[in-house]
Design brief:
- The structure holds two protein chains of two kinds.
- By secondary structure, chain A is of the alpha/beta class.
- Helix content of chain A is 39%, strand content 24%.
- Chain A has helices at residues 43-51, 73-79, 96-103, 112-117, 120-139, 155-167, 185-202, 213-219, 237-242, 244-251; strands at 3-14, 17-28, 32-36, 58-63, 66-67, 81-83, 173-177, 205-209, 222-227, 230-235.
- In chain A, strand 9 and strand 10 form a beta hairpin.
- Chain A is globular, with a radius of gyration of 19 Å.
- Chain A starts with a strand and ends in a 10-residue tail after the last helix.
- Chain B has helices at residues 5-10, 15-41, 51-64, 69-85, 93-107, 116-122, 124-131.
- The chains are: A alpha/beta, B mainly alpha.
- Chain A binds chain B through residues 51-53, 72-74, 77-78, 82-83, 85, 89, 91-94, 102-103, 105-106, 112, 149, 152, 165, 169, and chain B through 3-4, 6-15, 21, 117, 120-121, 127-128, 131.
Chain lengths: 261, 132
């Protein structure tokens, strides 16, 4: 499989703290790749480097042949990377469907004058955009709540709405930051099935930060383990489960593999 | 951009150009208003644009409805047009402005003719009570 995203010795420092240390990762096309590690290992920081919120001090990140370092987040979205956030960041005072419509921004071509003059082409595009937004909401089973304010939605639905909004930009690579945080086992299972559906039906490559081991072991094809910003292991879930360094990073010395199920 | 700047940028909205556009458009409209005002009055000098003008305008926007074009027209008619008709009560003009503002904030904070989004935002509590 071709590589979708390549990170080449990416390093991000905050003053004296090295959050991401010469990280080499290769995300293969159409794979589900998990990045795991104890809290503070640099996972979200790496995501922020990929999506343009932070500029790495050293190293390079490539999406295909495009270098992502130094690009602004709005430019990176146009290249086909979308993300969700660890602490859900929806637009709280907009309705569900309005949130999804904002996500479609990069694909809407109406300019200022067209909007001011209310040209028929702009009206047509708006209708199409609304239909597409409804389709996305249906995909995440939120179509009946399309006109509710996003801050009134329950937690699990807010997470799905955030994913719908990320899908609205038609990404090639979707970065999910702890999608199952705060969910019980039933909801987690539903989210796992949903993530698999995203890859199988839409052909999107998925990069996942997760803490719940059963999610990581259950759906990932490749797992990269970070600790203090460095990559300490990479491989299939089974290989990672048995890796002594990983177990030590998570559980301390002297823990057995059986504890990580 | 107003709700969450970083996320808006992550949705592909170029912050710099959009902010400039918003700022520039607003400035262009006020420049247009200034041109109309000066040709109407016949002569202008900086003294014509003192603080009271700004306060008047903010008052009538709040009264009529922030962000809503019909609202601003209603506000202008009510707070600038009516005083012209009621010349005898000219001294009470600012008193009326004050009372109108306080009254509006208490009874109808979104203004007389608001835009749908503002009405939603202002009546949060009510909506919460109804749907829960």
């Amino acid at each position: 499989m071709a590589a979708m995203l390549i990170s080449n010795k990416t390093t991000k420092r905050f003053g004296g703290l090295v959050a991401v240390d010469a990280l080499d990762i290769e995300i293969k096309e159409k794979s589900i790749h998990s990045v795991i590690g104890p809290n503070g290992a640099g996972k979200t920081t790496f995501f922020n480097c990929v999506t343009g919120f932070y500029k790495p001090e050293a190293g390079d990140i490539f999406l295909g042949e495009h270098s992502l370092v130094g690009l602004l987040p709005d430019q990176i979205v146009k290249l086909g990377i979308a993300r969700t956030y660890q602490n859900i960041r929806l637009f709280p005072d907009l309705t569900a469907i309005e949130n999804v419509l904002v996500g479609m921004h990069t694909h809407l071509s109406a300019g200022c004058f067209g909007i001011i003059l209310n040209l028929p082409s702009v009206k047509r595009e708006e209708k199409q955009a609304e239909a597409e937004a409804h389709r996305l909401l249906k995909f995440v089973n939120l179509d009946d709540k399309a006109n509710l304010l996003s801050k009134h939605l329950p937690y699990g639905e807010q997470r799905r709405l955030e994913i719908a909004r990320a899908l609205a930009s038609q990404p090639k690579l979707l970065c999910l930051d702890e999608p199952t945080a705060g969910m019980n086992s039933g909801e987690t299972q539903a989210m796992c099935d949903f993530i698999r559906k995203l890859r199988d039906e839409l052909g999107i490559t998925i990069m996942l930060i997760e803490h719940q081991m059963r999610v990581v072991m259950g759906i990932s094809e490749i797992v990269t383990v970070l600790d203090y910003g460095k990559k300490i292991a990479e491989g299939t879930p089974d290989e990672i489960k048995r890796n002594p360094q990983v177990i030590e990073a998570y559980l301390g010395q002297g823990s057995s593999a059986a504890q990580v199920h | 951009m107003r709700e969450d700047e970083d996320v808006a940028q992550a949705m592909g909205i170029n912050l710099v150009s959009n902010k400039l556009l918003a700022f520039g458009t607003g400035a262009a409209f006020s420049a247009l208003a200034g041109v109309i005002f000066s040709s109407k009055i016949g002569s202008i000098y900086p003294h014509s644009f003192n603080v009271m003008v700004s306060i008047n305008i903010v008052c009538l926007i709040i009264f009529g409805g922030i962000g809503s074009i019909p609202g601003v027209i209603v506000g202008a008619v009510a707070l600038v047009g009516l005083p012209e008709l009621l010349r005898e009560f000219a001294e009470y003009r600012f008193l009326v402005y004050g009372v109108a503002l306080v009254g509006m904030m208490l009874l109808r904070p979104e203004g007389l003719w608001p835009e749908a989004i503002r009405k939603r935002e202002m009546h949060e509590g009510l909506a919460n009570g109804e749907s829960d």
